[in-house]
């Protein structure tokens, strides 16, 4: 039976303090973005806004503002590239992991080890040859090309995550469907893949987080084009604001909203994915 002891109280206090420490940057971010220009320069960072205002957000998103078109355009590009990359990683990564997991040949084991090695290698090592080849194929400067690049660089992670789930999935349903005459592809699409909801949620959130926040790859492969992602737009925009921290923090919050909304709706699958569960 659980008993509430002094040690439990101490642990709770420590956890509360740690949580407050981790949330403090978010507090500074929100409070500063809600302060007017004069108050940002005269008040303490710890102080809540005395004259709460949303003018910083309206200034950034106003149709007459030049920043509005850049931020909204970058936001749209980030959404397109992130969603496209996730779809590619799910559509291609799940069957690849299924074949590697269910196959008993030596090549499948060796290929899986190559996948693990690819996860460990830094992506920056292959940026130059990857850029040259992407330019030769006409993939530089377009969202489609960047989706292909992200799909290739993050495919080992997708295969690795899916493989862990497939290894724990019993084969009873697959064998029963095979006996009934179902093909291998039909078994995967109708039986196996629907059970992979937690794995798909984990792949979507982890890879989506990487793609959405990535600055380096988007800067290299979309340089000079009109399809810059939100992190690159933020970098250019923040550089022009210099010390207008309320506007800078408002831009950061705008970039966080879509990701937080996506996590809010997919958190159940994400938690199940980390727990290794297969229940819907």
Structure write-up:
The protein is mainly alpha-helical. The chain has 2 domains: 6-56, no CATH class; 68-275, Orthogonal Bundle (MetI-like fold), CATH 1.10.3720.10. 76% of the residues lie in helices and 0% in strands. It contains 13 helices and no strands. It has helices at residues 6-33, 37-42, 55-61, 66-102, 106-120, 127-136, 143-168, 172-179, 184-192, 197-213, 216-221, 230-241, 245-275. The relative contact order is 0.13. The mean pLDDT is 83. Belongs to the binding-protein-dependent transport system permease family. InterPro entries: MetI-like, MetI-like_sf. The chain crosses the membrane at residues 9-30, 79-100, 112-132, 144-166, 187-212, 245-266. It holds the Pfam family BPD_transp_1. It is found in: Cell membrane.
